[in-house]
UniProtKB/TrEMBL annotation:
Taxonomic lineage from the root: Bacteria, Bacillati, Actinomycetota, Actinomycetes, Micromonosporales
Binding residue positions for substrate: T298, T299, T300, G301, R302, P303, R304
Catalytic activity: IMP + L-aspartate + GTP = N(6)-(1,2-dicarboxyethyl)-AMP + GDP + phosphate + 2 H(+)
Source organism per UniProt: Paractinoplanes pyxinae
Binding annotation for Mg(2+): D13, G40
Pfam families: Adenylsucc_synt (PF00709)
Keyword Chaperone recorded: no
EC number per UniProt: 6.3.4.4
Gene designation per UniProt: purA
Protein known as: Adenylosuccinate synthetase
Keyword list, A-Z: Cytoplasm, GTP-binding, Ligase, Magnesium, Metal-binding, Nucleotide-binding, Purine biosynthesis
Amino acid sequence: MPVIVLVGAQWGDEGKGKATDLLGDRLDYVVKFNGGNNAGHTVVIEGEKYALHLLPSGILSPGVVPVIGNGVVIDLNVLFQEIDGLESRGIDTSRLRISANAHVIPSYNRSLDKVSERYLGARRIGTTGRGIGPTYADKMNRVGVRIQDLFDESILRQKVEAALSFKNQILAKIYNRQAVKPDDVVNELLSYVERLRPYVGDTALELSEALDAGKVVLCEAGQATLLDVDHGTYPFVTSSNATAGGACTGSGIPPTRIDRVVAVLKAFTSRVGEGPFPTELHDKFGDHLREVGQEYGTTTGRPRRIGWLDLVMARYAQRINGVTDFVLTKLDNYDDLDEIPVCVAYEVNGVRHDEMPISQSDFHHAVPIYETMPGWKQSIMGARSFDDLPKEAQDFVVFVEERIRARISVVGVGPARDQVIERHSVLSGA
Ligand code: GDP
Ligand code: IMO
Ligand code: MG
C-alpha cells in the first residue's frame, strides 16, 4: 500500500505541518525521517495553534501512529517537554514510536553548535543552535550516541567518554570553554531511560509489517530541498538529507515501496539564516508579506527573509525529489497586491539560466528574470473549490503549474485545517 513522501520545495517553512495534518485522517503512520528540533511546524486546528518541533505533525491526528525514524537526531529534554505540552492539552501521545537507531543530541553538541557559530563570525551559517550539525557530524564520524545505547549503561559510558576525549580538547583549546564531565552527560541521558523505554523499537520492521498489512504511510521531511546537505545551497544548509531520498535512509523504507512524492511550495519564498537568495526583497513588499504571512521562525522567533516565488527553484525541487504533486500554500497572502512578480529564470553574467546554476558562486550572482501576474485584490480565504477563486488567482495557479513539471493538487488559502482547495487526490494520483 502507498508510501507518500512529503518534502519542502524551498528553504523550509512552506507549510509542511499543515499539509501533513490535512492528510491526517487518511493516514495510518507519519514518519519523521530527518532533522530534529531545528524544525518548527505550526498547525492550526479549530482555532488552537500547535507548534511541533521533534514530534511528527501526524501526532495531532487520533488515528495516526507517529514515528521518529532512525535518521532523526533527538534532544531528549525537548522530546519530553513536547510530549508533556501536548498531553496537557488533551492530545494522546502514547502511540509514538522511536527508532532505537536514532541519534541523541548530547548537551555538548548544543554548546559546540553555538560556540562554533560565534567563532565563525561573518562566515556563520545562522543555525538554530540546537546541536544539529555537530550531532550529524558525530554520526558520520562514528562517535555518535544512539537511543539504544541508553539501555546499556556501560556502553553508553564508553561512547560518551570516547566522544568527549577529543571534544573536550576542542571545547577547551579552541573555544576556551570548560571541559564537560562524562559522568554529567551519562547521568543526564540515563535520567530519561525509563520514560523512553515504551516508545523504542525496531521502527523499520514495524513499518515494513504495516505496509504488508496495507497501511498508508507518510514520510514527513523536516527542513527542505534547498537546505539539504547534498542538494541545497551548501554550506548554508542543514546537516541532513531533507529531500525524498532521505525518506528511505532515514526510515528504513526501501525506494521500491514509495508511490508518491508531494512537495509543499509556498506562493512566495522565505529563508531563515544566512546564504544566497536571488529573489530576496528588501522593500515594502517583503515587509508586507512578512506581516500578512506572520513570517517569524516557529523555532527561534527570527524574522524570516522574504522574496518572490522562484520557479527555477521549484523546478529543481521537482526534479531532485521526483515530485508527483505540489501543495501550493499561502496564496491568500497575495490578496492585497496589485501585481505579483514571479521569477521564471536567472541571468548570470549575461547568460540566461533556466536551471539552477551548477556553481554556488553563480547562484550568488543570479539576477532573477520576472514575469508579472495581475493580483486579485480580494480575500480568497473563504474559497473551497478552484471555481470559488477569482479568475486572476486561478490564472496564477495555472501559470505556476505549467512551469513546475507537476500538477498543483492542493492550494492553501489560510492557516486553518479547512482553508484548502483540493483539486486532486495526492494519495492516489486520481
Ligand atoms: P513548516 O515548517 O513547513 O511546517 O511550516 P511552518 O509551520 O514553519 O510555517 C508555515 C506557516 O504558514 C504556519 O504558521 C502555518 O500555519 C501557515 N500556513 C500554512 N498554510 C497556509 C496557507 O495556505 N495560508 C496561510 N495564510 N497560512 C498558512
Ligand atoms: P522546518 O522543518 C527553516 C536553517 C537554519 C540555518 C540552517 C542550518 O520548520 O521547515 P541547523 O540548525 O539545521 O544546523 O541550521 O538551516 N533551518 C531551517 N530553516 N525551516 C526549518 O525547518 C529549518 N531548519 C533549519 O535557519 O539557516
Ligand atoms: Mg517551520
